Amino acid sequence: MTDNRPKVLVVDDAATVRLYHRTLLDEAGFEVAEAANGLEAVEAALSTAFDLFVVDVNMPKMNGYTCVETLRSETVGTPAPVLMISTEDRPGDADRAYAAGANLYLVKPVNAERLARVARMLTAGVAA
Amino acid sequence: MGLVRRNAPPPEETAAPPTTGTLMRQLDDADPDCRREAALGLGGVAEAVPALLRRVAAETDPLVRDAVLTTLAAHDTAAVATGLGGHLASDDAGLRTAAAEALATMPVSVPAIIPGLLADPDHDVRVMTAMVLADLPHPGSQTWLAQMIAEDDHPNVVTAAIDALLPSLELEHHDLLRAAVQRFPDDPFLRFTVEAALR
Amino acid sequence: MTSAATTGAGLSQADFEKFRDYFYKRTGIQFTSAKRYFVDKRIDACIRNSQFDTFTSWFAALRLNDRSDLLQELINQLTVNETYFLREDYQFDSMLRTVLPDVLALRGGPNRIVGPLKILSLPCSTGEEPYSIALRLLEEWDLIDRIDVEIHGADIDSDVLSRARHASYGERSLQRVPAKWREKYFTPLGAGRFQLDEGIRGAVTLHQVNICDTLAMRPFREFDVIFCRNVLIYFDELSSRRAAENLYGAMRPGGYLFLGHSESMSRISPIFTPTRLPEGIVYQRPIGANR
Ligand SMILES: C[S@@+](CC[C@H](N)C(=O)[O-])C[C@H]1O[C@@H](n2cnc3c(N)ncnc32)[C@H](O)[C@@H]1O
After folding, report:
1. Do A16 and B197 touch (CB under 8 A)?
2. Structural domains of chain C in order of their starting residue, each with its CATH number
3. Quick one: average pLDDT of C192-198?
4. Whether B162 contacts chain A with CB within 8 A
């Protein structure tokens, strides 16, 4: 039986954050895959059509902004919504995320209800 | 027609390699490819370290910056550790994460700058420090991470340190984790992380 | 050898997961839980061959002190380090079907291309990889009569290079070579050994080089396609980054890089652009001098 829940890719170098987001999004009705840095996310997105990306900022090999730019560039070219979640709350960070192509920028920690609500809102219309 | 053999060495093989002076000048060339090759060509050249450190700060092309950092990180010295440590506070996410990655490969000289980084007033810098310690192959890493978990007053720093410590978590750390939850009872992620780690 | 002092089936689930995460982070190779038994046995062998007597002390030495001898042994235990003809053949399919047509197009098309197509196998070990490339081009690429192709092989180890030069192989290595090709291109030497034709041996140029040595890699330039399979997993962070930089310098903009089946650049360096082909992911040197 194929899984027709919306597919989300959780991109974070911290294994605990991936587990946390995986648990919350799984409960919220998503099929969850993980990537540990921006490049892994790009490679994963080349093979699978995701319905949503949840992306951290500070990651080795490829940071979150570059990751989102690459997801939006012709290398991948995904139209799927991107939610960036970061520990940073310096002025300008959110603008940078939107300039890179993110749909929403949130600052950690994000509580369970909020993440579920935002994820559902961003993927509204994707068959569940 | 078909497979051809190349008998003579490629012309470049016979050309003399550029001198250190030439390479150092090329670090400021307008062509990024030229800068990239110069940075790699300066591998192992101690006198080029100051110029390479200046290039890290000025460079805008991520490909060139990566090459410069690959060369710099192989000089595991105090000057390089201090120079790169300063970039952990950078507003440029590409630069601060690339600097953290390079520092994580320098177990000889990074320990000396850790106390200063742990005391940095900017919690974002301390989060980046946890990222360095996660991968630094040094027996002291565990102790510093434990110290961050016990003492840092910012929850994001504490969770970053917990994440970094997890692969080498020992029984003796369990109380430390429980105490962290007590200190930040309102942080759902911290609670979740500690519960997962203690399971 | 000794029965005592081994972990046996005693590796806990938590230890296994820690190990799996570490190994993945270090090499990009992933094990599913289905492989648990196999992995346990190989780890056991590594611990027995080391001077440590518990998983914990062995793992700490591996991780904290970054002991490359321990890592090398571990990788050898957990991967196939023997090379053979037509290994991971789907990548050669990819080269013929997708990569060479694209490279030709980048260089002005089959009628306008200036200079030969250049292909590098690094590391080439005992030669099976570059010779496989030669055989598949001769047998299956319809443009081979119109276009010059240079094939180079390189390795750090002079012993494997002299064996590559002699090009005599046994059954294990030739297993996947079709009988027709074997008749056409190999001469039996007796005792189950077969030697590759002088024509092909002579067409492949072999070099000794350390992939991490930037100066030694300088003469390698303008390659259209590079195979760098099953070596980067052995390197530490800085060496693999330097190797990636050197490969980049050896390629033409738009050139293609194949890594081993279980390898990925995502653990090494972001300087290449990953590209999806029908047969899997390959890497390209970005086309602009600058991205
Ligand atoms: C497992 S073989 C891979 C052969 C072939 N590419 C394949 O996939 O079947 C690994 C080879 O890497 C070579 N090697 C190891 N370190 C190297 C280095 N620094 N530079 C070049 N070659 C190296 C070894 O000599 C060995 O022949």
Report:
1. yes
2. 13-78 (1.10.155), 90-284 (3.40.50.150)
3. 96
4. yes
